[in-house]
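Sample 1 of the test manifest.
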Amino acid sequence: MTETGHTRTEDLIAQLAADVRPVRPLRPPMLRALLWLVVAGLVIGTVVAAFGIRSDFMDEMGEAHYQLEWAGSLLTGILSAIAAFHVSLPDRSRAWALLPFPGLVLWLFSIGYGCLTDWVRHGAEGFALGVSFFCFRSILLISIPLSLVLLAMLRLAGPVRPVATIASGMLAAAALSACGVSMFHGDEATLMVLIWHGGAVALLVGLGTLLNRRLFGLFGPRPAGQAG
Amino acid sequence: MSPPDENSPSGTVPDVGWSALMVATQGGDRAAYHRLLTEITPYLRALARRSLRRPADAEDAVQDVLLTLHSIRQTYDPTRPFQPWLVAIARRRIVDRVRIQIRTTGRETTIEPFQETFAAPETNEMGMEADSITLRRAIAELPPGQRQAVELLKLKDMSLKEASAASGASVPALKVAMHRALKALKGALGPK
């Protein structure tokens, strides 16, 4: 047999076989996604309860584009979570990563529609740019614990599908956080939602994708039976 | 190669499919795991060699696959076929190995042994071995006294006194023989 480095393949096999311990197969991905969604719901619910639902939230919900916007971010979050848990498994199709697209399209469409409504209502003033660090920061802060829980649950994806898993996972955490933040923080033009909510989501997905190795390194499986 | 047929007998251990071996592995069965890894290794090697020509690189990829399989063995779902799971892991590790190979070979340049050092033909180092042979032949053709002087003083690096003691010739005689030998060699090897 060919020798590579210092370990022969037969020796490695013997080493791995000696090292094997019983493991419990992972639960079905849909069930694990549901479990994470429940955790995310509890975290976001607690934050929303702490800040209190803003007074005009229910009024806004009477308008079609707010309904669509909120439903779009919620749907993106749910679909991304389902996608992340499926795509994290080596034998599931990579096409699962495309699952959040209907939600994203709905979300972007509603934001576009909102911008148009603002233009019709307020003219050029509807596009006044402002700084809304509060919602930007809130989305990031809520996303952090959600992402950490998700990373811990998806840690085994690191060696095989790190990028698709982390991109879907971060999108799930950020979209649900944005959904929660819009319940206690509002009064912004839709363009601001696009910039600050969209910016926070894009930042989280981008950072997660860029730092995928390091992030999975925090939780990922330790290489057992290391060839040496 | 395909997973072994579950009903075909082989050796002392009842032959079962890779799926069943993996399920046993998840339960902590070391013998089943050893057998599974041994059986999938040739299959993995064949997969790796499609993308990696050097056998050592292919073997490294096989070992990477085995290590990854070990570290994420709980992601195998016993209700699903084993091979797609294995192939997905293998592809990922083989692609990684191909990337490493491309990076490494990108930094390496194959160099030919230098044939020429400078444009002038006499400065070229080519034929150093041939020169050494010619020199030895020229020394062998010297008269015995001169040959002995060269061998003792130059090849064996002795002092005049040591050479004198070893050969019995006087120091002045050795000096003269050496001088004549060098002259003869210059004549034999110098530009014609």
